[in-house]
Write a structure and sequence with these properties.
Rossmann fold; seven-stranded mixed β-sheet; globular; 529 residues; iron-sulfur cluster binding; 15 helices; alpha/beta; five-stranded parallel β-sheet
Length: 529
Amino acid sequence: MTSETVIAPSLSTAQDDGTFTYDKVKSTAKERKHLNLKNPSDANEIKSKIWNYYSLSELIQYLGQKENDEFKYKRITLQFPDNLICDSATIVHELQRELNIVPQANQDTGESNTAQRVWILADTSYSACCVDEVAAEHVRSDLVVHFGDACLNEIDKLQAVFVLGKPTLDIDAIVKQIRSAYSTEQKVVLMSDAPHTYLLPEIAKQLPDYEIIVADLPKTSRAKIIGYTPPPTGHKKFNRVFNTDTVEFGEYELFHITSPESPRLLQLTTNFASVTTYDPISGTVSTGPFPNLMRRYKYVHQARMAGTVGILVNTLSLANTKVLLNTIKEKIKEAGKKHYIFVVGKPNVAKLANFESVDIWCILGCDHQGIIIDQINEYYKPIVTPYELLLGLSDELSWTGKWVVDYKSVLEEYGNEVIQQNEDPDTDEDLPPVFDPVTGRYVSTSKPLRQINHLMVTSSEQGGVDDHDNQLVKRFSNAVAIKGTVSTSAIHLQNRHWTGLGSDYTEDENAAGALVEDGRKGIARGYDI
């Protein structure tokens, strides 16, 4: 042993901060265009703008209500759309500070039944404009505070509060656009999304020489609008209240601030003489192109020939949803068609493509954003509304061009419609032929619930098959008849080129199979043949 110091060998090369360059997360400032911030990095300015924009003083006063010395609302959920979620943390902090809410872990400890708690809801189950009762029920919420634009449709169960916000507008620029678009002889209706509605009376005051009707917000029975007082009376239409008794909307031009979603836009274009939309951000106007109504007429004819209807439930919070759902089911059965009910959350092309046996979809959703308007043929099967399905199920198709989407009006249409159906169709002449409106081919499966009697086919489950029956009829009965009705899914499966493993096996093939032989062995770098 020597007295020299033993130095351990280096196991790796020397490394310092200059050896590698690490990717660091860059902090990005959140865009809050709705607040019109002068200095986006000033926290005090952001807080002040949020207080004014969302009317937090009135909201805090409403949430602080008490009954019998206890808070009226103890489990509060705050629902934000994607464009306002950036303000959620600040709003929750201010509510906790003003209402003396102690932050807790996201679990029920059962320690306090009198304290208030707040949850943030994002990524809504269905349309962002609707109250998300599904997510609120997960925490047994007493009250849902809905922030941002809202459809203001009547909700089913929960108590709700709408905080629309107070965005700003360049009123002089809007007045200039209206004067350049319309003459003083034309009748104009002013409408906007819910947040900008409070500015419409001010715009109308600056146009005294025009005949203008303002579309105001309706008063809802189970919800309060913070920072806004709806008019007590008026003519209600399109989920708006007009300051007149009756309005012939076909005589009016519509000037809409902000561009509505496709379902709402199609509804408006079918009722007004013309529609002009104004973009508050760019300051430009648009007169089209808008969703085409003629394509909806084509879908009505396709609903007429469909044998299987998929009822797509795209909302669970709107009032009369269950009533309309049960009514649609009864009408489909009366028409001799089959139906399936689907709840898939937010529908998309991939989800609906999994159900190939469905011939057409009937969607139950909000008339603002919850109805799918497929303008580019993105979906594999047509998607219709309950009103369009009613037209397709009617014996005589008569459409005036109106597009009805609100539940109450649709239920009235269903109540007035009487579907004539034959009791016992015995021959081919009892049922009128149905043809594909696109290809012109005869469709034999448009009424599968009646088809088994119509074809005089008896399934193997029912027994009583005559030995002298045609073998093709027997095979048809055994393959597609289930409990006395034609199975549209079985027919669809038979028409496929590939129906599963073993489906291509025939009796002529060798039942013994092939001989087992040695295959390749080794590793991927090199196999031994």
